[in-house]
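Write out the 3D structure for:
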Amino acid sequence: MPGEGGRVLSVAVRTGRMACVVIDDGNLIIWDASRKAVKTEAQAARKLRRWICEFRPDVLVTENPDSAGQKRGAQLRILKTLGTVAEDQPILNMMVRRQKHFKNAYLEAEDLGQQFPDIKHLVPKKPPIWKSEPYNLACFEALALARDAGLLEPLGGDELE
């Protein structure tokens, strides 16, 4: 069954931030994000190594840079760097294809908020077009990656048809 029997570190990269979530036996226990980590590939690698050392996961989930959809430029370079770092770690490395199940990331975050009631109050609202996306949206993407990897319960909300 998804989420049982291990500690998962799922890492997502979005414009201007890198985020992780730690899921232990199906329970979300930690989430973190960094703006500094996405400034260079070296900083992203250092941050990932710190997270691995600190959280001691059994499984690492990242997005596959070869199927990263709308990711471009620095985001792709960082995803490739994460893959390289992960290869050197003594843990299961899952590079997954990001699935688009919802019309936008905010609806997906809402669905994840239903699955994890403790973070429901943190679900970001879509800002006006002239404002930046909420900082914590990257954390919800990390959760979605874990779900895409089959390590969380399946979708429960308004999927794309």
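The longest helix spans residues 41-55.
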